Amino acid sequence: MKPKISIITLGVDDLARATRFYRDGMGLPQHDFDSNDITFFSLEGSWLALYPREKLAEDIGIADTATGTWSGMTLAHNVASKEDVDAVLKQAVSAGATLAKPAQEVFWGGYSGYFRDTEGYYWEVAYNPFEDLS
Prior knowledge:
With 134 residues, the protein is α/β, with parallel strands linked by helices. It has one domain (7-127): 2,3-Dihydroxybiphenyl 1,2-Dioxygenase, domain 1, CATH 3.10.180.10. The protein has 3 helices and 7 strands. The protein has helices at 15-25, 53-60, 82-94, and strands at residues 7-12, 39-42, 47-52, 73-79, 98-105, 111-116, 122-127. The protein has a 7-stranded mixed β-sheet with strand order 2-3-1-4-7-6-5. It is globular. The mean pLDDT is 90. InterPro entries: Glyas_Bleomycin-R_OHBP_Dase, Glyas_Fos-R_dOase_dom, VOC_core. It comes from Kushneria aurantia.
C-alpha cells in the first residue's frame, strides 16, 4: 500500500452548515463538483470531503450510531486500478483488518470497498476512473 491518505471524509449532520464553516469560516478551497450531496475541499496532498453521516454509514454498510462505536469519519486510500483495490483490501485483511464491505462497482461510477483497521477506523479503498487521486 502506498503511504498516502487521499481523502478524509467527515459524516456531517448538516451539509450546508458544515460546508459554510469549512469554506467561508476556515477558508478552505472548495472543489468545483456538481453535486448537492457531497462537498470536496482541495488540501495540500489530500482532500477533505463532507458527506451526510447517515449516507456515509449506508455506504459502508453499517448502522449509523451517533453515540456508538463509529466515529462518523472515514479515511480513503485511492489507487490506480480495480485490481489495486482488491490487492490493498487483501493486504489489510492479511494484516488483521476486518473486511467491512467487499470491493464492488459503486453508485458514483468507481470501484471501492471498506476495511476496518485493528483500532476500529474505517478505510475506503477506491479506484476513481474520472480523477486520478492515487
